[in-house]
Design goal:
With about 260 residues, the chain is mostly beta strands. It contains no helices and 26 strands. The relative contact order is 0.08.
Length: about 260
């Protein structure tokens, strides 16, 4: 079983995993080994997981063009919705809201209302496949990132979830597909910032509001970078295809610098 997505609801003590064999499982962090729930139903690989903050509801997305809503206690599929050509690449839950954001190979970012499992809004389509999405902790913004090659595409895009007419800002500088995007928690001396990782082996930190690149780190020999997770305002975890998990730290000296601290 090759994992392709993992998500968690920290308050619930539950972890959810999706794999290329179409399996979606729930695991209890403090329970005996083995999954505690199974969510069957997708016809192709499951590529998106989003769990409600209390861990009671799970949304899944797949390359079969569908999004499903599940009761995590019973494993029951509560709703299923399909959109033509909507090959899901990622899902994330908007904090404190009933909304789930979804990126797609059809170059579109959709906002789903999880209560009725319907599309509440679609942002204007981009020029390239949308590979990942993220919601800000204050539920005001979302990020998406694009595929790319040879310096074309590869941008991240900031969208306002309240004023949904157009994009707010773009972040350009990666030379290949941008694989992951995260909001960094606000630090005492750091302006609102985001971070991105790319198949070009670089991680970049950006000023959220101006689009300026604040710091870049090239992880040579790591191969394509797969995903990012923000631990706090200055610490990131970065998964690579060739050299494991990298622990990165943002330091503020004469200027911001992103450094590798450890590799696991």
């Amino acid at each position: 079983m090759k994992m392709c997505r993992v998500s968690t609801a920290p308050a619930s003590g539950r972890v959810f995993s999706a794999s290329r064999d179409r399996t979606v499982l729930m695991w209890e962090l403090e329970a005996a080994a083995g999954p505690s729930q199974h969510f069957p139903g997708h016809e192709l690989v499951v590529t998106g997981l989003a769990v409600s903050p209390d861990g009671s509801t799970l949304c899944t997305g797949s390359r079969d063009n569908s999004v499903c809503k599940w009761d995590t206690e019973t494993g029951q599929c509560l709703a299923r919705a399909a959109v033509s050509r909507n090959l899901v690449t990622h899902l994330c839950w908007v904090p404190g809201e009933p909304y789930v954001i979804q990126s797609s190979e059809d170059k579109t970012i959709r906002v789903w209302d999880s209560r009725e499992l319907r599309v509440a809004h679609s942002f204007p389509a981009k020029q390239h496949i949308q590979t990942c999405c993220a919601a800000s902790p204050d539920a005001r913004y979302c990020l998406s990132c694009s595929s790319g090659a040879a310096g074309r595409g590869g941008e991240a895009t900031l969208w306002d979830l309240r004023q949904t007419r157009s994009q707010v800002c773009e972040y350009r500088g990666h030379f290949q597909t941008t694989t992951s995007c995260v909001f960094l928690p606000r630090g005492p001396a750091l302006a609102p910032s985001i971070a991105t990782s790319s198949c070009d082996s670089t991680v970049k930190v950006w000023d959220r509001d101006t689009g300026a690149c604040l710091a870049t780190l090239c992880l040579e020999g790591s191969g394509p970078l797969a995903s990012l997770a923000a631990c706090d305002s200055s610490t990131l975890l970065c998964a690579s295809s060739g050299s494991g998990i990298h622990l990165l730290r943002l330091r503020d000296g004469r200027g911001l610098a992103l450094e590798e601290v450890a590799v696991f």
